[in-house]
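Just wondering, can you check both lines?
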Amino acid sequence: MAKRRKNIDESQKLELLQRMEAGENVSKLASEVGISRQRLYEWRDQFRIHGSLKSRRRGRPPRSTAGRDEVSAQPHGTANVQEPQEKALTKAKRRIKELEQKVGQQQLDLDFFREALRHFEEDRRLSNAPGETRSSGSLKK
């Protein structure tokens, strides 16, 4: 396993996530950097939810410099989470649309092949009817 790093900056995290999304083996990627696979998945989830990878300190959030009226107008964290969630929703809707188009194309292909099979079986049935000449096999005996 590679030597463990204490701090990985945001640009390096983004690069790792891009490689992860491109299909690289997550275990090998984590081992290369010296972190756990779980950490990569945590970063991915944090990026999807919050839209950034800046480290979030545990504990009490910093005091807001905004006035009391502004703070009470919005539930805690709504403004920060809403935009990335909207982006994720838009991305999900786009993916759903792509998949629906793919299913539609597959249905067209399925209908085409069913019809072709029906024609093939009908021609075969007609050629096997009484009085029709059957296709002959090999003429060798």
User: Anything to note?
Assistant: The radius of gyration is 30 Å. Residues 69-74 have pLDDT under 50 and may be disordered. The chain is about 65% helix and 0% strand.
